[in-house]
Amino acid sequence: MRTRRAEYSESTRQALVDSAVDLFTKRGYAGTSLDEVVKRARVTKGALYHHFSGKQALFEAAFTQVETRSIESLTAVVTAEGDAWETATAGLRAYVRKCLEPEYQRIIVHEAPVVMGWERWREAEEHFSFGLLRTAVQLLVDAGEIDELPVEIMARLLFGALSAGASTIASSSDPKRTGREVERAILRVLEGLRKK
Amino acid sequence: MRTRRAEYSESTRQALVDSAVDLFTKRGYAGTSLDEVVKRARVTKGALYHHFSGKQALFEAAFTQVETRSIESLTAVVTAEGDAWETATAGLRAYVRKCLEPEYQRIIVHEAPVVMGWERWREAEEHFSFGLLRTAVQLLVDAGEIDELPVEIMARLLFGALSAGASTIASSSDPKRTGREVERAILRVLEGLRKK
DNA sequence: CACCGGTACGTACCGTCGGTATGTGAGATA
DNA sequence: TATCTCACATACCGACGGTACGTACCGGTG
Predict the structure, then answer these.
(1) In chain A, positions 161-180, which contact chain B (CB-CB < 8 Å)?
(2) Residue B177 contacts by C-beta under 8 Å, 6 or more apart in sequence?
């Protein structure tokens, strides 16, 4: 049953997460104080500690929100019908674009592995971007487009390359041009894996 | 002239850096307190703040020490005479092994980009591992081994892939096996870029 | 050798921040 | 309407990064 109190509560929680995403993106995890988070959300630390067990948990909530919203747009691209190769490359391009959004870049790519610990980050990513990427690679193998190889490993390498590529674009003086170059380079790598 | 005071001072500084490398490796940047660092070095915070402007500066000193010591062994491999292809692949293997050392993995690969900021990290890496990798890629292009392509970009992608590969190995339940798989996968990627 | 200046620290302290304990009032329940 | 409960607010604590200041000792000078 949907009571009024539950709505208020959910709204408060959402405000906290939104505030957290915003500040973590701008100033990073260590540079963000909880006092500031609650101030922006127009609540107090009491509210924060009622909804979350601490700063780490708040970060994970922010992480989940950014990932959940990201995965929606990406899934649409990757699950589209049609040629496997076309689908996969479209997915790559979509992911690179996603990595360029400040929230994704800062929270998911840069901060999360350190804040959550690489192990925990890896585990969480199974259900999000990385899981999607691995699925895409698996599809290519199944479709016979690329050589037989350990999908898990290759997906890891690609994931790392994509993240590095996105960071390069983001800090470039000419993002447009760098973006095209990164895209071409990644496609070139994939072409290299393609069966003749 | 090498005075006694200068030697004592240098020794103190070195003890601080060693202590910092050790603790940053075990507990990460945020998880390491300066009180603990100075305790291990058997000095006080006064000494620390005499030698370094703050925690960040201490981290950069630790970063530089780990990188400087790493670069020596790697340079030997990459500057060896002989076939460019052989040299490059040997360099890749050497780098992956280096990434498996806890100090390198934690401080250089995982923490540094967040603690120093990606921009500053990128700048520092120019003189260390990344600079070496780019040189290796450039050599392959010059030797006509791989296709013409933006060396900078390709080096970035490879760097990301290698880091991800190393992290995967490090957290694997069977590092030996995963290590071989990662090596093979990376060589496969490089083979794909090779001219026919 | 006496003196002095500066370097290389040690000590005491401050502000900030993550986290906790407890109070409280609005809304659900009977 | 009385009570209970939950969703916060308030007040406070300890840890930690950083600063201000005191001091001992080394090295040069007359």
Answers:
(1) 161-165, 167-168, 171, 178
(2) none
